[in-house]
Design brief:
The chain has 21 helices and 13 strands. It is of the alpha/beta class and 562 residues long. The longest helix has 21 residues. The N and C termini lie far apart (242 Å). The C terminus is likely disordered.
Length: 562
């Protein structure tokens, strides 16, 4: 056991000795970090220090300059530090940059149509560079109106939009109303025949008070009714600056006119108002109040009340008051029921009030001919400035025509234009000639057969040639039946009435053949009897020789003797 233990002790000591030998560090002179490698000196720098070398101005020849197509230009003699973050973090983590569109709105319109899955309208896209977008009768998708209105927010050129007869829903009217709140360049909006109804008018008129640029608004044929007129009146009451308004063919009654008159009490800037083809005859007090309010206007130039079945002195008195508008130029009250003398007097009493009046249209009103002369009497005054008086369809008399001719001689009335309808007493309607009608009937009966056609004119001429100038109805019937013509008794009696001859002692009617033949010569001048051939000369007797005569006489005498 001692021998084994000593062997293990010897191995341990040997291992410790090896470890002590391996852990010995090298001397400091042998450290690699302290070894200094000296580079050889730059020969140019040595020569420069000795004054034997000049580096020059420092400019680098372009031949030694490196060029790159990238945004960072690298130079051969310089090195740039690398970019820590070229924008990748912002591109991945930051919000997407907003796209930039030009003010004309063309690129924005295409982008919106693509986003909304709508087909772009080429005419509108082109019109964004012009002044008018004419989309009338184009069947525009009402859901595409949103893209159109948003593309016009910053547009500075388009001033007129025409959407005539494009059926628009409430959504389209809402976006048009929003356009009116932001766009101040648009001056004309035509929505005629779009059938927006009262609900569409509510959404459209919501943007009118905030718009100060729209001047012309056409809402004709939109089925507004009195409810839609109330929404428009509220926009007028809220200081809307629209000037020319067309509300024709909307079924507006006098109640709608009443709400419009109440709005005009606070904001009366309308210059053109068209209320034609409505139902203003109902509730006449509402229309009367509207006319009274418009008579106080200093801006009204055009007023149209045609096709409203207006009648009565109350409405005529309101029309009389509207002449007090100082700047009134055109007044149209045609196709109504203004008929009585009192109404005619109301329509003419204030014709001299407006000093800028140009056109006055009262056509197709049941005004009497005696009352129509009131208009021309007033027009002759030098204080009346009307240049065109339209009275189409109104009956006038001869005095009316004479006064027009006299008025044309006045110095300030040569260019005045007056139209009128039928003139009483000037022309008489020509009744059809019974002779021509009856003879045409006889001619038709004579030419009706396919085989035996007879010319009645030649039959009459033959009777005259035979000296039969006057015949009673029985003899005339027999004469024409002999010629092959069969006429009924009624037609024969008609010929006896239009070509009468002297009656017989018994009172029987006769036909004047001479009169009938004279009229036929003027009616059918080309028809004539064939010329009568001259009579053949009688043959001359053949002379008998005397010898033969004596022989014959002798023979005769001999026979007698026998």
């Amino acid at each position: 056991m001692s021998s084994s233990g000593s062997a293990e002790t010897v191995e341990v000591l040997q291992l410790k000795a090896q470890a002590s030998v391996e852990s010995v560090e090298p001397s400091m002179s042998e450290w690699s970090s302290l070894v200094i490698h000296v580079e050889p000196p730059n020969p140019k720098r040595v020569l420069y220090e000795e004054g034997l070398y000049d580096p020059g101005s420092g400019e680098i020849c372009a031949g030694y300059v490196a060029q790159s197509d990238s945004a960072v230009f690298r130079h051969a003699y310089y090195s740039y530090p690398c970019v820590s973050d070229p924008g990748i973090s912002h591109a991945l983590l930051g919000p997407a940059p907003k796209p930039f569109y030009s003010d004309d709105g063309q690129e924005l319109y295409l982008a919106l149509c693509k986003q909304m899955n709508q087909t772009p309208v080429r005419i509108f896209h082109r019109a964004l560079l012009g002044t008018k977008a004419d989309l009338s009768y184009y069947c525009v998708n009402p859901y595409g109106i949103q893209a159109m209105t948003k593309s016009l927010v910053n547009n500075k050129t388009l001033t007129s939009i025409d959407l005539t007869d494009n059926f628009l829903n409430d959504d389209a009217c809402f976006h048009l109303g929003e356009l009116l709140t932001t766009n101040t360049i648009l001056t004309e909006l035509n929505l005629a025949g779009c059938r927006i109804g009262p609900s569409g008018a509510l959404r459209l008129c919501a943007g009118l008070p905030n718009n100060k640029g729209l001047m012309v608004l056409n809402l004709s044929r939109n089925q507004l009714g009195d409810a839609g007129t109330d929404h428009f009146s509220q926009a007028i009451f809220s200081k809307s600056d629209v000037r020319e308004v067309n509300l024709s063919s909307n079924g507006i009654s006098g109640k709608g006119a009443q709400t419009l008159s109440e709005a005009l009490e606070w904001n009366n800037h309308i210059t053109h108002l068209d209320l034609s083809r409505n139902l203003l005859y109902s509730f006449p007090s509402g229309l009367y109040n509207l006319l009274i309010e418009l008579s106080n206007s200093q801006l009204l130039k055009y007023m149209n009340l045609s096709w409203n079945s207006l009648s009565g002195t109350k409405l005529s008195d309101g029309i009389k008051q509207i002449f007090k508008a100082k700047n009134l130029q055109h007044l149209d009250i045609s196709n109504n029921r203004l008929s009585t003398t009192e109404v005619a007097m109301d329509l003419t009493v204030f014709m001299a009030k407006p000093k800028k009046m140009v056109t006055y249209n009262v056509s197709y009103n049941p005004i009497k001919s005696t009352d129509s002369i009131l208009f021309i009497n007033k027009l002759q005054s030098k204080f009346v400035k009307i240049q065109k008086l339209y009275m189409d369809g109104i009956t006038v008399n001869v005095d009316f025509i004479k006064k027009i001719n006299v008025m044309k001689l006045l110095p300030n009335k040569q260019n005045v234009e007056v139209t009128y309808g039928y003139v009483e007493g000037l022309h008489k309607a020509a009744s059809p000639d019974p002779r021509e009608t009856t003879l045409n009937r006889v001619e038709f009966i004579c030419k009706k057969p396919k085989k035996n056609k007879v010319d009645i004119a030649l039959v009459i001429y033959q009777l005259l040639k035979e000296g039969k100038n006057i015949l009673d109805t029985k003899e005339f019937t027999e004469a024409i039946e002999f010629a092959g013509v069969s006429l009924d008794d009624g037609l024969i009696a008609e010929l006896a009435c239009i070509f009468p001859g002297p009656t017989s002692k018994k009172g029987a009617k006769r036909v004047n053949i001479a009169m009938m033949g004279e009229y036929m010569k003027r009616k059918w001048p080309e028809r004539k009897l064939p010329p009568t051939p001259p009579p053949e000369p009688e043959p001359e007797p053949i002379p008998i020789p005397q010898k033969e005569k004596k022989g014959k006489e002798a023979k005769g005498k001999g026979k007698g003797k026998k």
